[in-house]
Write a structure and sequence with these properties.
Length: 733
């Protein structure tokens, strides 16, 4: 095989340019119609067996392509569009979406109707989160594909021989057995087909993975890619590769002992990383690095350094890197990571071990378990092999509760009664704030109750034989992971729009109840009219410096009153499933969709404009610079928000120039983390560069920016998103 540098041009766009061999299977459109027939056909079989048989049909008939320019040679035709981010597979489109609607209409019709009303006005969707999964990679790599099948077969035999089993357990194990037999048949097809091409190492690898667990670094990487293929045929998304510098280290060391050179293995990582770039995985493919053990010792190793150095050379953002920081972290790792961010490679998030441990402790999980956490998705911790966290079933736009408090529970844009019917005559800010909290609780309580009720029907909506089989507990107990067999079966809520909410409450306090420059009735009228006729007051409020994100007393007190209220009411609350509630405050880019359905707000924002993102100040309102913004964020009790409280920064390149600039950058990170900050991520970029990129995109095709919990090329962002970045840069420092 040629070198990676020579082959790269044949790999980077291989998914969108794939030409599948029609002799190897059926066209994706034909299979899609078959799956629609299966979905619509009446049957007496359990949903798990229907799913497994459809899955088996797909693997027996899927078309293949072999790329001779990469050691990760095979692709399968799932009907995915790779022109931007990878879209849903034909299997998911046919068998998941309509099934969820069917189950919710049949089993929870009243709640489903109400949820749709809430979603229509911008409070967001409320549904079991199937899409953020963390396979137990240690168990998978120990067993391999054939080992999982043998374990399922053995568990079935053991249960059948006992008097305590039930039919549901046998059905689950049968679904796993059907799926894994199909996987092994597909691997055999891939092996035979690969012999037609000049890929001897790939053929040998596939042949070994048919009968054995992975034994080399190459086989571990190939297994991981294949497992993600197989899991993600459905709705599930494997949202971390795990702690790869720890997980892959024994294979790396054995390869070195067997005669492989470090240079050869570094080349393998180049191909591995570029595979995920080519696959255009939505929000990128995360992996975790570094971290501490139970005694606080640094777990950084030589593979950690090799991974960072290799990644830096590639100038990519997918996969993305999540680094666990602690006080004993290898200083060279932090320096290298921040040098990469400073150089424009900002697809890195740094998460504070101690903050995560404290967060888990607050919800009753000891450090002996939480020390094994990885980051999934954007920056959410999960204890791999022990916890199902459902990190995003609710992404709640709490700005709407300002509307409801002002307007008697009615949505302003649609005039529909959505919140509870609260009074319109309010005499003090304390009374108004109390109504706001009650509207917040009213909507959150409904969402939580609805999501919990859906949990009873999870396996009807979406059986998960592949994801479930990554846990020994599921195999041994004969239970789908969504029947909650793990040690920790938790659920997470995210509340969005913090800055817009706080700034709006601050404006109401100051202008309605303190200075009385406008009555609450006229404020309601101003919002109904999108500030038309109230432009002077709108401009005054926008110019007012008393905004969240500037380390100011009043807005930050309102902010902590909200976050403490949510924490007291929901953090660690026990669930019917046996786990507890986790909280988060990150919004990612839902701030745009939420804003489109949100009326004008008392902070001067116009209707349908984006609401605030993550823990950021409202766009352009962090006028005190990054240190004041940081001080505001640090007032949040991060231990109550273990599901994610990320600090997003934008720094001007001049602030981190040279050795002194890098030292200052390192100090900034350490100050944030040493004061209890949870996670930090961001961009080093200036307004002038972004404006030029907006005008001349052809000159900036590789300019990447950290948009939320992932990166994108700036020139591919919508103008709304580009403008948000440019506005943020106006106050960066």
């Amino acid at each position: 095989m040629k070198t990676f540098i020579e082959n790269r041009k044949h790999i980077e766009n291989e998914f969108e340019n794939a030409v599948f061999d029609t002799s190897t299977g059926l066209d994706a459109d034909i299979m899609y119609e078959k799956f629609k027939e299966i979905q619509d056909a009446p049957t007496d079989e359990s949903r798990q067996i229907v799913y497994a048989n459809a899955y088996s049909y797909l693997l027996d008939n899927v078309q293949l392509e072999i790329n001779e320019h990469t050691p990760f040679s095979v692709k399968i035709n799932l009907g995915i569009d790779y022109s931007y981010f990878a879209t849903e597979s034909i299997f998911q489109n046919a068998l998941f979406s309509s099934q969820v609607k069917k189950i919710l209409n049949e089993k929870l019709p009243e709640e489903y109707t109400k949820m749709k009303k809430l979603a229509d006005v911008g409070l967001d969707w409320m549904c079991v989160d199937f899409t953020h999964t963390v396979p137990n990679w240690s168990y998978l790599l120990k067993c391999g594909f054939s080992g999982i099948l043998k374990n399922a077969q053995a568990s079935k035999e053991k249960l059948l021989s006992s008097k305590n089993h039930n039919e549901k357990q046998i059905v689950f194990l049968d679904s796993v057995i059907i799926c894994y037999n199909a996987i092994l048949r597909l691997l055999n097809r891939i092996y035979i087909y690969s012999l037609k091409f000049n890929v001897p190492e790939f053929s040998k690898c596939i042949k070994n993975l048919m009968t054995n667990p992975p034994e080399t670094l190459y086989e571990v990487m190939q297994f991981s890619i294949l497992y993600l293929y197989f899991e993600e045929i459905g709705i599930e998304r494997g949202r971390t590769l795990g702690h790869i510098d720890r997980l892959y280290l024994p294979y790396f060391e054995n390869d070195i002992k067997s005669g492989k050179t470090e240079a050869e293995l570094k080349e393998l990582f180049r191909y591995f990383f570029i595979h995920f770039t080519a696959a255009k995985r939505y929000a990128e493919q995360p992996f975790t690095m570094c971290g501490s053990d139970k005694d606080g010792n640094d777990m950084t190793n030589k593979l950690s350094h090799l991974i960072l150095n290799t990644y830096d050379e590639l100038n990519i953002y997918n996969p993305k890197i999540q680094i666990r920081y602690h006080k004993n972290l290898d200083g060279e790792i932090l320096k290298k990571a921040l040098s990469m961010i400073r150089g424009g490679h900002s697809s890195i998030c740094i998460v504070n071990d101690e903050a995560v441990f404290e967060g888990y402790k607050k919800i009753g999980i000891p450090k002996e378990d939480s020390q094994n956490y990885v980051l999934l998705g954007c920056y959410e911790p999960i204890i791999i092999g022990l916890e199902e966290g459902e990190i995003a079933p609710l992404r709640f736009n709490m700005v709407k509760c300002i509307e409801f408090a002002i307007n008697g529970g009615r949505d302003i844009l649609t005039d529909r009664q959505i919140g509870y019917e609260s009074k319109l005559e309010i005499k003090s800010f304390d009374e108004f704030f109390d109504i706001f909290l009650k509207q917040l609780d009213y909507c959150t309580d409904f969402a939580l109750d609805f999501i919990e009720k859906q949990g009873d029907y999870s396996t009807l909506m979406n059986p998960s034989p592949i994801y479930s089989s990554s846990f020994s507990e599921c195999i041994e107990k004969g239970m789908d992971v969504h029947e909650y067999p793990l040690k920790y079966n938790n659920l997470s809520l995210k509340h969005h729009g913090l800055a817009t909410t706080v700034d709006s409450l601050t404006a109401i306090k100051k202008y309605v109840f303190d200075s009385k420059e406008i009555s609450l009735e006229d404020m309601r009228k101003a919002l109904l009219q999108d500030w038309k006729g109230f432009n002077d007051l709108q401009n005054k409020i926008i110019r007012d410096k008393e905004k969240y994100g500037n380390n100011l007393t009043t807005p930050d007190k309102i902010m902590t009153d909200i976050t403490n209220h949510l924490a007291d009411r929901y953090c660690g609350r026990k669930l019917k499933r046996g786990g507890v509630l986790r909280l988060g405050l990150d919004s990612v880019y839902h701030c745009i969709a939420h804003g489109e359905k949100t009326s004008a707000t008392p902070d001067g924002r116009n209707a349908k404009k984006p609401v605030s993102k993550n823990l950021c100040a409202s766009n352009g309102m962090d006028r005190g610079g990054i240190t004041a913004y940081m001080q505001s964020v640090l007032k949040i009790d991060s231990a109550s928000y273990v599901n994610g409280v990320p600090f997003d920064f934008i720094l001007h390149p001049s602030a981190v120039e040279g050795e002194k600039g890098l030292a200052d950058f390192i100090s900034l990170i350490k100050i944030f983390i040493n004061n209890g900050g949870f996670a930090i991520q961001g961009n080093v970029v200036n307004k002038e560069t972004l404006m030029d990129a907006q005008r001349n995109p052809e000159k900036y095709s590789t300019l990447q920016v950290r948009v939320c919990g992932w990166n994108e090329y700036f020139v591919k962002l919508s103008k709304v998103k580009q403008d948000m970045f440019i506005k943020q840069c106006e106050v960066s420092g």
